[in-house]
UniProtKB/TrEMBL annotation:
This is Glycosyl hydrolase family 109 protein 1. Keywords: Glycosidase, Hydrolase. Its EC number is 3.2.1.-. Residues 38-169 form the Gfo/Idh/MocA-like oxidoreductase N-terminal domain. SUPFAM superfamilies: Glyceraldehyde-3-phosphate dehydrogenase-like, C-terminal domain, NAD(P)-binding Rossmann-fold domains. InterPro entries: Gfo/Idh/MocA-like_OxRdtase_N, Gfo/Idh/MocA_oxidrdct_glycsds, Gfo/Idh/MocA_OxRdtase_bact_C, NAD(P)-bd_dom_sf, TAT_signal. Residues 211-442 form the Gfo/Idh/MocA-like oxidoreductase bacterial type C-terminal domain. It comes from Luteitalea pratensis. Residues 423-445 are annotated as: Disordered. It holds the Pfam family GFO_IDH_MocA. Signal peptide: none annotated. One of its GO terms (molecular function) is hydrolase activity, acting on glycosyl bonds.
């Protein structure tokens, strides 16, 4: 299919997949055999094969029935991973039941697929998720779930409209240290929360020439571009051929992503929102500055500093340093680190030992602690909300996008209305809520 035709098409095509050997869970409802959930993977790169696939296959009752990617080598590797994993569990020692697809619309048209895990480059997240919702699939979506605030509102509304289960695929709510920090803050062990200081890792820009080159034989580059502008292929824009370990170049290009601001921000800012009790709303003011990397391809922010003010009086400062969060209240502080180090040998530090030793009372504010994979699959089975649903995901990633808009407005102090999700006094800032013209043709209306 030519790219122009493909971009104009927002419907589903008929699947050419073989008939399923086991009927999907929804055919049986509550009587589904072992509560089985048939899952398909769209995008089978580093994140999918390194984490998402193995961890989902470890959840009881999950069956990965299909993998899809525009890179035939990658999808072949994913198929081998799935089938070798299931072969080890089979009494015969053999398994050959995982189908492969190049076009994700074939996956969405399959009647045997209950849910999809979307692990593609960021510019594809909203279009694919919207089409999956319309096709009646539950969706686990890699973070950051959106690239623009308006797209996120349409996505959250569509989840509700279609009655589907949705989860932001972020593991931070499932990490005990962040879960513990949130419960301590929400239960008042720091007193009244006053300030939050959060930082993402710094972006790395290794030396790599921006050289146009022939498209690798295994890559459908036209499909990879999808809703992004049509530009000549270069490895620096996409990912290293036949490599599942190196960090893909698209992470550092604003054509496809927004760098560490949203990549790690989607994890860390969510925890800030959760602890602040603002996970379903947002700030009332934002101000940000930053500097873009001076490179014709890798042009994301190489540094930024953002300040937010919330209606409850809390101020939040977001910058680049080490992945960590510090909560400051009128009775003490608590700092949570993503990793231990010589400087920080423990995940949690506090102004007083009693804070860390505190026991959350039975009638206190408590949250479930479970794997994000289990959380999603259980929600698919029971139809309950996930721990990080579409509305929470929209509000979290909006804070990151607000910082980006603040940078574009060159440090101006911007009032923000979280109810309307608009800047009430800055028309220019509002022009950044939507993506570039034409993106809506990929299912974001």
């Amino acid at each position: 299919m030519h790219r122009r035709t493909f971009l104009q098409s927002a419907g589903l095509i008929a699947a050419g997949a073989a008939a399923p050997t086991i009927l999907p869970a929804r055919v049986f409802g509550a009587q589904a055999p072992s509560g089985r959930v048939n899952l398909a993977f769209i995008g089978t790169g580093r994140q999918a094969q390194g984490m998402n696939l193995p961890e989902f296959m470890a959840v009881p009752g999950v069956q990965v029935v299909a993998v899809c990617d525009v890179d035939s080598w990658r999808v072949g590797q994913a198929k081998a991973l799935v089938e070798s994993t299931y072969a080890k569990q089979a009494s015969s020692g053999r398994y050959t039941g995982c189908d492969t697809h190049r076009d994700f619309r074939e996956v969405l048209a399959r009647k045997d697929v209950d849910a999809v895990m979307i692990s593609t480059p960021d510019h594809w997240h909203v279009p694919m998720a919207m089409m999956a919702l319309r096709a009646g699939k539950d969706v686990s979506l890699e973070k950051p779930i959106t690239r623009h605030i308006a797209d996120g509102r349409r996505l959250a509304n569509a989840v509700k409209q279609h009655g589907r289960v949705f989860r932001v695929d972020s593991e931070f709510r499932s990490l005990e240290r962040f879960h513990r920090a949130v419960e301590l803050v929400r239960n008042g062990y720091l007193g009244t929360l006053k300030t939050i200081r959060v930082s993402s890792p710094k972006e790395e820009f290794p030396e790599e020439a921006a050289v146009e080159a022939p498209v690798p034989a295994e890559l459908d580059y036209e499909m990879w571009l999808g809703p992004a502008p049509k530009v000549p292929y270069m490895q620096k824009r996409v990912h290293n051929p036949r490599d599942l370990k190196g960090r893909p170049g698209w992470f550092r290009s604003t054509m496809y992503a927004d760098g560490m601001l949203t990549n790690w921000g989607a994890h860390l800012v969510d925890i800030c929102q959760w602890a602040n009790g603002t996970e379903r709303t947002g700030p009332i003011e934002v101000q940000a500055t930053g500097r873009y990397h001076a490179d014709p391809v890798w042009d994301v922010l190489e540094t930024f500093e953002a300040r937010y003010r919330f209606a409850n009086g809390v101020e939040m400062f977001y910058t680049m340093d080490q992945p960590q969060i510090r909560f400051e209240g009128d009775k003490g502080w608590l700092q949570v680190h993503y990793s231990k180090s010589a400087a920080h040998p423990e995940f949690l530090e506090a102004s007083a030992a009693g804070i860390l030793a505190a026991t959350i009372p039975a009638d206190g504010v408590r949250f479930p602690l479970r794997s994000e994979r289990v959380d999603f699959i259980e929600a698919v089975r029971t139809r309950r909300p996930t721990m990080e649903d579409a509305e929470v995901g929209q509000r979290t990633i909006s804070l990151c996008h607000l910082a980006h808009i603040g940078v574009k407005r060159q440090g101006a102090k911007l009032a923000w209305d979280p109810a309307t999700e608009r800047f009430p006094t800055d028309a220019e800032a509002n022009t950044h809520l939507e993506g570039p013209a034409g993106r809506g043709k990929w299912g974001t209306e």
